[in-house]
Amino acid sequence: MLQEKYDPESSGFISTERFRDLLATHGSELDPHKLEVLLALADNNAEGKICYQDFVNLMSNKRSNSFRRAILQGGRQLKDNALREEVGLGLSQRLVRHVAYETLPREVDRKWYFDSYTYCPPPWLILLITVAEVVVFIYCGFKLDRWVLQVSSPSYLKGPLPYHPQLRLQAWRYLSYAFMHTGIEHLSLNMAMQLLVGVPLEMVHGALRITLIYVCGVLAGSLAVSVTDMTAPVVGSSGGVYALVSAHLANVVMCQLKMFRMAMALVCMSVEFGRAVWLRFYPPAFPPCPNPSFVAHLGGVAVGLTMGVVILQNYEQRLQEQSLFWIFLCVYTVFVLCAVFWNVFAYSLLDVRLPPVP
């Protein structure tokens, strides 16, 4: 076996000399980018030995914490922009390379992602959510015979999906409100940010991490409204969308100073948030019930800048290995529990006068 040949003492380590012999013998069989990463790891290893399990993880497309620390040091030996200068790539390879540069901040991570990505599974989550939102909007459009400011229709808030403070005990509404939108302009802005940011993030980080950020943003949005804007209903996927966008901006764009992309994202967020604020203070469609709240946007941003940044920071590292992730998850859990306690007791204790369901 390979381990018996290069690690006869069964120490769990391979000397850098034997490691170089292995690369010299079998390097032609490896992808050039993966070979470059291995050589950088060997060149920068001051201890004179390399963990055999790290080598196995690399060859099986699994990366451990110890390997990550070593390879980040070895990354200094990698050629600058080597992946960007690669020629002769097909359309799908160019797309993967573009996603790598738009989503990941470190060259060594980009190369690793470029080598290992297989389109299996495809980025189905964000596409499925977007299609569901479009289907619900079209259904509401035909049913209400209104495509702009649907919230002004007498039947808009009577459905089973929007969050309404009178119906706050129906727990599914804290999530299902994300599939409802007040009009075609609301849906279009959210779709644009959701697809342009969410699909590349899902291609890199996988559906599980993106689902966690998105759902936490949606839930934080409705709970934030129920605590701070107690008489207002909520609709729209802005909580989840803002969680994804703010996490991505904080983790990648700002550290790379991609000013144009950051400016475009901030413009879209500002326009959508401004529309939500305007609508909140617009004459209500169902007096005395106010129009939908904008506070869900802020809840999404808070999730993105805390949990989202940690989840996206090390795209190949397991979440259970990140201590900061558990800290933010505990904080988020405490927030959810406090918000649930608030919804059960605060409304009656404060004698809040809730508007009737339309």
TrEMBL record:
The keyword Cell membrane does not apply. The chain crosses the membrane at residues 124-142, 210-228, 234-255, 262-282, 294-312, 324-350. The active site is at 238 (nucleophile), 297. It is a multi-pass membrane protein. It is found in: Membrane. Gene3D superfamilies: EF-hand, Rhomboid-like. It catalyses: Cleaves type-1 transmembrane domains using a catalytic dyad composed of serine and histidine that are contributed by different transmembrane domains. Residues 170-313 form the Peptidase S54 rhomboid domain. Its EC number is 3.4.21.105. PROSITE patterns: EF_HAND_1. It comes from the Eukaryota. Residues 5-60 form the EF-hand domain. GO terms for cellular component: membrane. The keyword Transferase does not apply. Belongs to the peptidase S54 family. This is rhomboid protease. The lineage of its organism: Eukaryota, Metazoa, Chordata, Craniata, Vertebrata.
